[in-house]
Amino acid sequence: MKGVIGLPLEHDSARMHVQGSAQYIDDIPVPNGTLHVAFALSSVAHGKIKNIDVSLAKEAEGVHCVLIAEDIENLMIGPIRHDEPILASNEVLFYGQAIAAILAESHDLAKKAALLVTAEVEELKSIVSIDEAMKSKSFLDEPMIVSTGDSKKAIKNAKNILTGSLSIGGQEHYYLEGQVAMSIPTEDNEMVVHSSTQNPTEVQHLVAYVLNVPQNAIEVITRRMGGGFGGKETDSSQLACICAIFSEKTKKPVKARLSRKDDMLLTGKRHDFIANYEVGYSDDGLIQGIDMDLSARCGYSLDLSKAIVSRALFHSDNAYFIPNATFTGYLCKTNTASNTAFRGFGGPQGMLAIENIVEEIANTLGLDSLEVRRINFYQKDKNNVTPYDQVVEDNIIDEITNELIADSSYYSRRKEIDAFNKDNKYLKKGLAFSPVKFGISFTTQLLNQAGALVSIYKDGSIYLNHGGTEMGQGLFIKVAQVVANEFGVDISRVKVSATSTAKVPNTSPTAASSGSDLNGMAAREACLRIKSNLTHFAREHYGSSESNIEFVDSFLAVDEKQIPFDEFISLAYLNRVELFSNGFYKTPKIHFDPVKQKGRPFFYYSYGACVSEVIVDCLTGEYKLLGVDILHDVGASLNPAIDTGQIVGAYIQGMGWLCSEELKWSDSGDLLTTGASTYKIPAIGDTPEHFQVKIKPNISNHENTIHKSKAVGEPPLMLAISTWLSIKNAIYNANKENISGLNAPASFEEVFFSLNKVS
């Protein structure tokens, strides 16, 4: 069928998801003799290891092998620096760090044996919080600065100056499928690794490294993940590596699966930040200068923190032109698990910081924050250069704003809310609008590349391999639509293979919202090469011109002839036409100087906006979300059903981050929130009755992306900022002197305390 692009097709595994028949790693029948891994974990946050006693564990029922750090030759791994020991060596660096690995005949037996491991640890002073790290000057790297103009002078000369601080909490990924891996040794020292990972190439690289073998000896396969959200971009490597080491030692298949508690203890989360700011502005709320420090809790190792803090700085302007700005990022080293990628990758934290500032400026001046936002927006022909020197060429934030304000009846609702608040002493409503301008591309330039392999079989069926991974986001169906569209066939003809490093090498992680952009373009390039072969053959065989040849509705149309696609493919095979090809794509135009923090780190921007309404009980701090209106830009959508689902899911996840999901550590570094009983993700009852989500119609990408579509994975998460702002607005409506005082997440307790603060 012609026109597969833009159809709201269901997720390729939707029916299997509903039926429970979709196969994840834990569903794969294990080979005979498979052994299972469990970890013994540290019970202190920081200390020198004097001794680890594994004697009882070795003698326990069903145990085949026990490893400690000294048993592993290539111990140190990590995505940027090799500063992460697979098992703690000499020193414990965070509470819950793995100090020993046990291999047994079942998962339960391995867990029981792990409890028998004892460690003598000399406790050292631990640094847990951002404040402690800043006071101790405990950093993983030098501060990062993005600046333009003269912020100090602009602030000094401004009529109004605002100073303040905002605490921004972290977030657990809480994927449905936890971290899991299985290694299967094959002949000639080769190994197949099944890993629930967003980054098969990184897993392949690190497994090869720890085993001292070339990468071609390791095949990493990922059919699907039960969620990732960034938590499986780097953190999946530890489990895969320990399985591979055990397999190499025992020559047996090995499987490791973390419990929810162990997963939350061992793996990183969204970075929590503290934003300290000083802002100068005019009487109408125009920002003239800003100085803002963003301090991030990174954990004990670097992981991806440098790129994450960098993106936070890049998004500290959001949709606003700020002529004089200095944004400084601090990478705080703490005795906690190393924080890692999470949907938005630092952007949400930077964006929340500036949105909080705009809201406080409006409150200070007694203005509607919408109007303050409008006057600070980037413009099209002037005031359109970011602090990192990228020109905003595709700005549609005014259009998005105008359409959503009209569609949501913002101004009439504001009047109704003012009347309600006047008549109610203990119940207060809040209403807020927030925009989104989010940059799309990996900020690490080399990652902006992708490959694909497309094969057509003699019967006209098509097999697609690409480097992207499927984690429920609908990447596979989108790229399949691209392939079906090129050949003018029904989507049912296209089968997408599991992602394998043996088929497409050197892949980038499926992250940064770039999965469809990169892999869709690579797949299209492969299709175009095959089409060129087929068109050349058809021209010669049928004596036609290229302009009269078209692939449409599962036929090859040649002049007046209609040849079924499968028949034509069979004919092409008989005439020795090449029916397979690879494709490669690299994102154009992007460049960046990491020293000067200047350049064009993003290919384009994605835009959106949200209006949220909330009601707060001023006596208890409890609140209820009453309504959400969203308008989001996805360019020319490849699949509106998938894109809408992504917008809804991202918003809900963002709402969880900003409203209910609260990570807590003890003073000694013990993570206290390790499961559903202590960590509250949003439930269906937390969604509002009025929940309107619209994709901006009649628009395409300014840049030459796959069919002029735009990324949709990360940008909608930040729409939830409007919900947090609506709570802040309700608090302000309860007490006009309380212009600040709300941190994130806005738990009921936080709201209660904020209601009783006066700035």
Give a verbal description of the structure.
This protein is α+β, with helices and mostly antiparallel strands. The chain has 3 domains: 14-21 and 449-586, Aldehyde Oxidoreductase, domain 4; 31-125 and 173-266, Aldehyde oxidase/xanthine dehydrogenase, molybdopterin binding domain (Aldehyde Oxidoreductase, domain 4, 2-Layer Sandwich); 273-443 and 593-755, Aldehyde oxidase/xanthine dehydrogenase, molybdopterin binding domain (Aldehyde Oxidoreductase, domain 4). Helix content is 29%, strand content 25%. The chain is built from 19 helices and 31 strands. An 8-stranded mixed β-sheet has the order 3-7-1-14-11-12-13-22. Strands 9-17-16-15-10 form a 5-stranded mixed β-sheet, sandwiched between helices. A hairpin with a 2-residue loop joins strand 24 (555-558) and strand 25. Helix 6 packs parallel to helix 7 (236-250) and helix 10 runs parallel beside helix 18 (721-734). It is globular and about 80 Å long. The mean pLDDT is 97.
List keywords for this structure.
Aldehyde Oxidoreductase, domain 4, 25% strand, 759 residues
How does the SSE layout of this entry go?
Elements: H1 14-19, E1 35-41, E2 47-53, H2 55-59, E3 63-67, E4 76-77, E5 84-85, E6 91-92, E7 98-104, H3 107-114, E8 118-123, H4 130-136, E9 144-148, H5 151-157, E10 160-168, E11 180-185, E12 191-195, H6 200-211, E13 218-222, H7 236-250, E14 254-257, H8 260-266, E15 273-281, E16 287-299, H9 305-314, E17 325-333, H10 347-365, H11 369-376, H12 397-407, H13 410-423, E18 427-440, E19 449-456, E20 462-466, H14 475-487, E21 494-496, E22 499-500, H15 515-542, E23 549-552, E24 555-558, E25 561-564, H16 565-574, E26 580-586, E27 591-593, E28 598-600, E29 604-617, E30 623-632, H17 640-660, E31 690-695, H18 721-734, H19 748-755
Parallel strand pairs: 1-14, 12-13, 16-17, 20-21, 30-31
Antiparallel strand pairs: 1-7, 2-6, 2-8, 3-7, 4-5, 9-17, 10-15, 11-12, 11-14, 13-22, 15-16, 18-29, 19-20, 19-26, 23-24, 24-25, 27-28, 29-30
